Amino acid sequence: MRIAFLINNVYGIGGTNRTVINLAQGLSARHRVEIVSVFRRQETTRFEIPPGVALTPLVDLRPGGSGADRGHPLLAEPTEEVPPQEEFHAQYSKLSDQRIRAYLEGTDADVVVGTRSSLNLFVARHGREDCVRVAQEHMTHLDIPAEVRAEMARAYPRLDLVTTVTEADARTFRDTTPVPGVPVLCVPNSVPEPPVRPADPAARLVVGAGRLDPVKRYDLLVLAFDRLREEFPDWQLRIYGQGTERAALRALISDLRATERILLMGSAAPLDSEWAKGSIAAVTSERESFGMTVVEAMRCGLPVVATDCPVGPREIVRDGEDGLLVPTGDVDGIAAGLRALMADPARRARMATAALANSRRYDPGRIAERYADLFRDAAGRRGLHPADDTGTGTAPAAPADHQLARGTVRAMGWARRFWTPGTVGKGGLALVSVAAGAAVRITAATAHLDLTDPDPLLAVDLPADQADGLTLLLREVGDLRSERLLVLPAAPVADPPPGKARLAVRLGPQLREALYEGRWTVVLETASGVRSRVTAGVRETRRLIADRDRLLAEPAAPPGVDWLTPYVTKEGHLALRSWRRARHAECTAVRVADDGQLAVEGAVVGAVRLAERPRLQLRRRGATGTVLEYTGRATGRRFRFELSAEELALARLNRWEDWDAWLLPGPAGPGGGRSAADAARTLDVDTGLRAGLDNQTAPVDLEAEAAEAAGAAAADGTAAAPAAEDPTAPLRIARILDDFADPKPILEYPAALLTDGGAPGYALVLPAARIDVRPYCTGKGELSFQVVERD
């Protein structure tokens, strides 16, 4: 059969996009499948379109000059087809009406499937009489506005089939919006077997994922998990996703002083490798039309604690067998469900096994065959004769044979290479400088990094007809005028994914030695010298969680830090953050008490001699480089310092300041270890006054200025770095030993809120109504403190 799916915007992220792509791949093994996206708002899809599945956009709204329809006059005229109460009504126009009608009237598809109510109305009104017309409903039926449901009741009798994703919703549809003569049946969404190993039930991590939307009630999950902090202090909760509730959730986590126990991770795609880090999945929604995340978690081997909300979870989770259903909206009930599994590793393991087995009923192959049967039945009722099965794609391969991938390779703006002296890296590997050149073509490819083994595996999948003559490179992120490339000895693998080629390389000791500290992006180079960055696929990094625990727990200091963390750039490309250093001071905790007391905890790694009474220095950035010093305590390799936010506030000289945290491992000398209060009392009253201070309303980029000044000082020899072999030399305290490359947006610490109280010095002359003292991680993961006056 020739099957077409009409979807709103397949280029974005969403549950409907995922399930339509999954179903299209399953059907493409035996049928010709096309995905028709009404809108195209970006260059490439966020989820990979499988080989053999055609993609047709109707309205091109890409930013810049590439969006051919951005200036079309009909784009400004309102739609005449989509009811004004429909959720996405404002996105549609006379132009989209025209394009959708033209497609439906001209397509040669045997089956046309709409994927939301607005598009199903188009299919019902304008679909050809000689094709099967199907409405696929992904939204909970009673969440559709009554006016839209009334329009559905009028138009849907021209359809041949309506499908919902749950049995409960099919019943509701039949009861509230009867469509005489049209079958309304449940066919659940499909979820493929993930390309990662199943989760470890022994992990101490709860995972949630989805839109940060009020209906998801992540606030209840945060409160429930926080109630268990005394019973399970070594457990962590991670929530993946973006949305309107992020700021409120961040504030709640700060109020609970749970920054390091409850992490807002942002978006991640594909999500399989993140699910697989946990041992419990949590879903606390008020309602779920289906529950894609429930099935995705189960397919990764996680039992699910889910609210028994309408309508999806109760049809997916078998209560007590592969998960637990808990009361909707009940913090105590959610906490009890989590406690039941967190406290019982054996029960978690049994449920994990059941989750893997039971979730196979959502395999795309099974769901695709169910749909194909329904399409044939509908055609038979109408006396239609679809084309013979002529598959253009392939069925999903076994995960052992491929990695789940998405996206494209995007060309970079360089096309010339030149060699310069001194560009041979450690171990004799070539480091190449490159200069700016012209932008080149775009081609499909995806890069994966698997850190399961000590020697990480980097693999790039791309169309088989584009693999000849390619070289795999790592490009150092730095000065765009002169880049450095590390040539990797990648080779084709013997059993690539169907229809593709795969280049792979192990990042063994020799390559790791050459991969010095910094950021590196994955690059492909053609035989003609054209270089292209590669879109990120699967990043299997769960081993890093165990490695962090091991590095910090060992009684003897490891020889140093050799840490590699993959991440995704803003453009969607795979990049690596490499940390290599002989000595390091890792921050393990920052405490902010309600009374303004602060604590910094950490551990040293490498050649560091830690005294029983080490020191913490807070160094003010900028020209007035005041240093405040504190004496702490050390036990083995671990250290702890206590300080007062009030003292930092009293020592301020500007309305916005940053103080950087340094560890001095050795003991204090004569007169060392003064408190911030002592330091503040020595400040001259006039020191902080400067012209225009009252006009300073926004911070300057002090970190960039400090880095520039430090670079200049190092260049002229005025600020030479301490000798690496000195075990007592100062160390910048930082958080780098994680499975995520950038802790800054994830570890957002609460602020200590203070008011001036007749303080000496600057604060006495220019008091502030409120001062915020907030710990934070810089873009390099380094610990600093921000002191800001608020009006």
UniProtKB/TrEMBL annotation:
Pfam family, one: Glyco_transf_4
Top-level taxonomic group: Bacteria
Alphabetized UniProt keyword annotations: Glycosyltransferase, Transferase
InterPro entries, alphabetized: Glyco_trans_1 (IPR001296), Glyco_trans_4-like_N (IPR028098)
GO molecular function: glycosyltransferase activity
Ranges of residues in domain Glycosyltransferase subfamily 4-like N-terminal: 13-191
CDD domains: GT4_AmsD-like
Domain Glycosyl transferase family: 204-355
PANTHER family in the cross-refs: D-RHAMNOSYLTRANSFERASE WBPZ (PTHR12526:SF627), GLYCOSYLTRANSFERASE (PTHR12526)
Protein name: D-inositol 3-phosphate glycosyltransferase
Provenance organism: Kitasatospora phosalacinea
